[in-house]
Design goal:
The complex is a heterotetramer of chains A (179), B (221), C (342) and D (390). Chain A is built from 5 helices and 5 strands, in the order ααβαββαββα. Chain A is an alpha+beta fold and 179 residues long. The radius of gyration of chain A is 25 Å and the shape is elongated. Chain B has a 5-stranded mixed sheet. In chain B, strands 6-7 form a two-stranded parallel sheet. Chain B starts with a helix and ends in a 50-residue tail after the last strand. The chains are: A alpha+beta (179), B alpha/beta (221), C mainly alpha (342), D alpha+beta (390).
């Protein structure tokens, strides 16, 4: 036991926190403002902005998707469902041959099953999948968590730009495609 | 690593004297008991012992060689899984025209092996920071081995887990009861021939491919 | 409350009942809001309830409404009568305690010469309620909680009473009003600037009383009988809905009432220095002064509660028998000697 | 004389017999107290069936498996990159640390090594997940012995760490950031400075805990001499991490078996305590958090530049072989024994989780203690149910 008994020190810690919470301005500005002093955020009224990399919900940039099935195959949970068919697209150059193009019919992600691991976003070779930090998409019915491709496409508007890297990084910064 | 480290890497000896010595002292004590061994220089040591020498190995390691720290006991079922990655069901394969494959031969890992089931345990010496993996082969018709509990009391739960997951009996164990699974559970889930139902009740979404346009079969890759 | 004597018996009695109910419930509500919802939350860097009413001030009403809606569950093997009656016994002791506490020179429920004696006697009744709850629940955790509570409450009754004895000796009366007046008109070794709050002359008694009070309230560090992380709130485990609410009110109202008794005994009750104790003003400001002192003392209770870990029962018994009781006894002897000497 | 009906007589006899039975039970058998699976002290769904004599434990038998998810089986049908997702959920408070030994074992089989910058970041995140995990222990242990406030402080300050983890990995709890041969991504700009600030906050938190909990005489009375584990017993039960260091065994895999991480590039100390009781375990963990913050600070300052990914094929097939890598995770030594057959998926993964071994000592340790001490001991051994049940 030191000079001050531990019991008193403990009271000091809780009492000090009490004072710091009520008077966040400290001694200089002793105005009670617990809303500022508290660590918590009054959620529905006030929202913390998630970081740009936050894995909230998966957004689909439909134009880039070639229905290559890579994401559906790599998904550990088997929660991505893709259906598509081939169709003829007009030739790229005039006089060229009509191209074969994969048309996406269905792209569903079951967010009830999803583990938010990000493997699908990572393996996508055509930059069609992105993480959006949006997190408010809970549903009263579990079946509604199956987002179809139009819903997934809507999330694209919430996808932030990739953050620049810390000094010393040699990774190339990617770009989010314009909508 | 930086350049200094790469030179260090090259300096790692192809032979590992400390582990050679350790293996020698184990062999000296157990004699015929040691049936196989493997050393990865600078890294690890595997010793495969005879089933009768299993408990003696533990005693030797703990009392004479200072391996006080017990890491784990578990088992390996070396039979290749008849279900593969469980990605596609039998029905799909038949439709695709794939013939039912012959079961692949059993292939054991380092330090060799003769049988389908192998119990392996790992103990550490906290002073020399060396670990050793001990393996023992169990014949299919007699999945029994003596328990390590008298030497390493911590083996108790690991052996219970191993018993329920692989069906390997540890003779002399103070209470082989289910540890994870409910008491009435039947079967040994970690055996390779025990199907993982979650991967069978639902088709793999990755199995479908982009459908070709009608009358356009030749594009199908 | 001199008017009371002119009223018929039934009229004065019902007035007293209403007053008692108001005193207990309002005080409990105030303490829960100020301490449990706000100050403790601030101690933990959070805000507490904020949604119902401004700054969450109506949260308590919402909680009460919630509890009232809940099903009143009886465990299948419970001793139904005992189980059902236990919360009433505990709440009864709280209501009986409040009657002796004066709020001003004329603001009292009963002005008995046995005041503090009655309070100490009545406070022990809650032990029976706790034991009933523990036994009646037919739950091992509850039983252990009940038994622990009984042992603890009985052990701490002694230092509590012994601490009071010092005050009684010094005041020369057991009447609560008398104790207030003794502090208001008294003097500390001849100096009567602020009267004689027994907090100063009975510091040891105050110290013992506060610790014993904490234990009587089964608040941490003496909450072994309820111990959420261990006995899952002990004797209250099986209670739900209305009956749990009664325990809850009992807990906080008792904290308030004990703080009030401590305020009367050691802080001079409704008296503040500077105003003549016979002044009629105290009938108005007295209850407010009391409330202020109660809030302060109960803040100490909750501050300790939310700062300290809990003692094991053997340790808290040791604390009572080997530490608190001896120093309380020494305090009595010293008080007696000084009383005779001066 | 009133006639007693047969029925009355029978019910009387039955009542007498019931009373007798109750008496016999109380006198001879003691009481069986069932702690859990739903109990605040069991961090989830551990269950302890304790035979009591009064409040003294005669025999305690932990029962687990309520949360068994069969990870060892599940890994056999998942590719190597998919496995990391899964093993994030073993010790969910220090998720990143779970990935590291698995990745290191796979790297050992593939004979690749992550570039230095990746190793640096890996070590930083590894230590930060230790802080995130142990900080919660410091608060939780206090709750187990009855102090409510410390756990709020713990949650409050852990948030800073989680925010930093999220800023890098995108996941607060399940980073899934480690890859064979490196890391998924580099650090975002400004992260290093923020992390220095967070480390400062964590050190302040440690000071607060020291004043609020560790220095408290009541806490010491509750934890000193409770649940003493002699070093030898602890080792033979496979105890690891702070639990064994609190028994005076100077064994820390970060120092003794460095593998794929760069703890040796920093100046730090392995803390041990000779007592082996609950207080010692708390003490060691508190010092370790401080040590971790200093490791992170040092590494942030010396971070090399360069790539974060070694050359690894896009489709990962691990060559046949066996490898075991054990690292010093927040809860203790965690290891993965990977058996590969040169396939996309591991052939067998034995997960050696720390809590499983740490808790296996409880039947021995709980004999003869009192009911309140069960809670102290369980709290101080510190387990995560996901780490026991896997």
């Amino acid at each position: 036991m030191g000079l001050v008994p531990g019991i008193v020190k403990g009271l000091g810690v809780t009492g000090g926190t009490l004072l710091r919470t009520v008077f966040p301005g400290g001694v200089k500005k002793p105005i009670p403002a617990p809303i500022k002093g508290a660590q918590t955020v009054q959620y529905p009224h006030e929202k913390e902005t998630p970081v740009a990399r936050a894995r909230g919900v998966i957004a689909l940039h439909e134009e880039n998707c070639t229905s290559c099935m890579l994401c559906a195959r790599e998904c550990p949970d088997w929660c991505i469902y893709i259906e598509g068919h081939k169709e003829k697209a007009p030739p790229r150059r005039a006089g060229g041959k009509p191209r074969q193009k994969n048309k996406l019919d269905r792209f569903d992600i079951d967010f009830a099953l999803c583990m938010y691991c990000g493997i699908c976003v990572e393996v996508c070779p055509f930059e069609a999948l992105f993480w959006s930090p949006e997190y408010e998409f809970s549903e009263p019915h579990i079946a509604d968590l199956l987002h179809d491709k139009s819903r997934l496409h809507e999330w694209m508007t919430t996808v932030p730009e990739f953050e620049p890297y810390e000094a010393g990084a040699s990774v190339k910064l990617k770009k989010v495609p314009a909508l | 690593m930086s350049s200094a480290d790469t030179t260090e890497e090259e300096a790692v000896p192809a032979t590992d004297e400390a582990r050679e010595q350790l293996l020698a002292s184990i062999t000296a004590d157990l004699g015929e008991g040691v049936v196989g061994s493997h050393i990865r220089p600078g890294d690890d040591l595997w010793v495969r012992v005879d089933r009768d020498a299993w408990l003696d190995t533990a005693r030797l390691l703990r009392t004479k060689l200072g391996f006080h720290y017990f890491s784990f006991i578990s088992a390996i079922d070396w039979m290749p899984s008849p279900y593969g990655r469980s990605m596609d069901s039998r029905v799909d394969l038949v439709l695709e025209g794939v013939e039912a494959e012959e079961p692949q031969p059993i292939e054991q890992g380092v330090a060799g092996g003769d049988t389908r089931f192998q119990v392996f345990a790992r103990v550490n010496n906290v002073v020399t920071n060396m670990g050793v993996t001990i393996k023992v082969d169990l014949p299919d018709d007699d999945l029994r081995v003596t328990t390590w509990v008298p030497v390493y009391p911590g083996a108790n739960w690991h052996e219970r887990e191993c018993w329920e997951m692989f069906g390997i009996e540890f003779t002399g164990h103070p209470g082989l009861r289910h540890i994870y699974l409910p008491g009435a559970f039947e079967g040994n889930p970690m055996r390779k021939d025990y199907p993982l139902l979650a991967r069978h009740v639902r088709p793999w979404p990755g199995i479908v491919d982009v459908e070709a346009m009608p009358g356009d079969d030749e594009v199908k890759s | 409350m001199m008017i009371l004597s002119e009223l018929a018996y039934w009229e004065s009695t019902s007035l007293r009942v209403v007053g008692g109910l108001a005193a207990v419930l309002l005080m409990a509500g105030t303490l829960v809001y100020i301490h449990l919802f706000k100050l403790v939350s601030f101690m933990q860097s959070r805000l507490g309830p904020m949604e119902t009413g401004p700054y969450g001030s109506l949260q308590l009403l919402a909680e009460v409404g919630k509890f009232l809606q809940k099903e009143d569950i009886f465990p299948r093997k419970a001793d139904r009568f005992v189980f059902a009656a236990a919360p009433f016994v505990i709440l009864m002791s709280t209501f009986l305690l409040v009657v002796v506490v004066p709020g001003g020179p004329d603001a009292w429920f009963i002005d008995s010469d046995l005041g503090i004696y009655l309070a100490m006697a009545v406070s022990s009744v809650s032990v029976i309620g706790i034991l009933m709850a523990g036994w009646g629940s037919a739950n091992k955790y509850s039983l252990m909680g009940g038994l622990r509570a009984t042992g603890q409450l009985i052990a701490y009754e002694l230092p509590l009473i012994l601490a009071v004895v010092g005050v009684v000796i010094q005041a020369g009366t057991m009447n609560m009003q008398g104790i207030v007046l003794a502090q208001a008109d008294g003097s500390i070794f001849g100096w009567s600037g602020i009267g004689n709050p027994f907090l100063l002359t009975q510091a040891v008694g105050f110290f013992v009383f506060m610790i014993a009070m904490q234990a009587e309230l089964t608040q941490s560090p003496f909450d072994m009988p309820v111990a959420e992380s261990e006995l899952v709130t002990g004797y209250m485990t099986e209670y739900s809905g209305m009956r749990f609410l009664m325990f809850f009110i009992g807990e906080f109202a008792t904290a308030g009432v004990f703080s009030a008794i401590a305020a009367v005994l050691f802080l001079g009750g409704w008296y503040v220095p500077g105003i003549d104790s016979a002044s009629n003003a105290f009938n108005v400001i007295g209850p407010l002064v009391m409330l202020g002192k109660v809030v302060f003392l109960s803040f100490l209770v909750f501050w300790f509660r939310f700062t300290f870990p809990r003692f094991r029962e053997d340790q808290l018994q040791k604390l009572a028998w080997k530490f608190l009781i001896p120093i309380a006894l020494v305090n009595i002897v010293a008080t007696g000697i000084l009383k005779v000497a001066f | 004389m009133t006639a007693i009906s047969d029925q009355q007589q029978l019910s009387y006899i039955a009542a007498q017999a019931a009373d007798a039975r109750v008496n016999v039970e109380i006198e001879s058998e003691g009481m069986t107290l069932n702690l859990g699976p739903q109990h605040p002290a069991t961090h989830g769904t551990l269950r302890i069936v304790a035979k009591l004599d009064g409040e003294q434990v005669i025999k305690a038998d932990p029962v687990m498996g309520y949360m068994h998810r069969g990870y060892e089986k599940l890994t056999e049908v998942r590719t190597y990159p998919q496995v990391t997702t899964l093993i994030n959920r073993i010790d969910w408070l220090g998720s990143f640390a779970n990935e590291v030994p698995f990745i290191l074992a796979a790297e050992k089989l593939m004979e690749v090594e992550a570039p230095p910058r990746a190793q640096w970041i890996r070590t930083i995140l590894f230590e930060m997940s230790r802080i995130a995990n142990v900080v919660l222990f410091l608060g939780d242990m206090a709750v187990q012995v009855g102090a409510v406030t410390p756990v709020f402080f713990a949650f409050r300050d852990r948030e800073h760490i989680l925010n930093q983890m999220e800023a890098v990995t995108g996941g607060r709890f399940h980073p899934n950031f480690d890859r064979i041969g490196g890391l998924k991504d580099d650090l975002p700009a400004g992260w290093i400075d923020e992390t220095h600030q967070v480390m400062k906050k964590m050190r302040r938190f440690c000071d607060e805990m020291e004043n609020l909990v560790m220095g408290n005489e009541i806490f010491q009375a509750r934890s000193r001499g409770i649940g003493v584990i002699p070093a030898d017993v602890g080792l033979s039960y496979g105890l690891s991490g702070a639990n064994i260091r609190a028994s005076g065994v100077d064994y820390d895999l970060r120092r003794d078996n460095p593998c794929g991480m760069v703890h040796d590039q920093t100046d730090w100390k392995v803390w041990t305590h000779p007592d082996g009781d609950s207080f010692a375990r708390f003490w060691v963990r508190l010092q370790e958090v401080r040590e971790s913050t200093s490791i992170v600070d040092q590494l942030l300052r010396t971070m090399p530049s360069g790539p974060i990914m070694a050359k690894v094929p896009r489709i990962i097939k691990v060559p046949a072989g066996e490898a075991y890598v054990e690292t010093e995770n927040p809860l203790g030594a965690m290891g993965y024994y990977i058996v590969s057959k040169g396939d996309l998926v591991p052939f067998r993964v034995k997960i050696r989780s720390a809590s499983f071994s740490n808790v296996s000592i409880t039947p021995w340790l709980l004999q003869g203690v009192y009911v309140p001490d069960i809670i102290t001991i369980l709290g101080s051994l510190y387990f995560i149910l996901g780490d026991i049940d896997r």
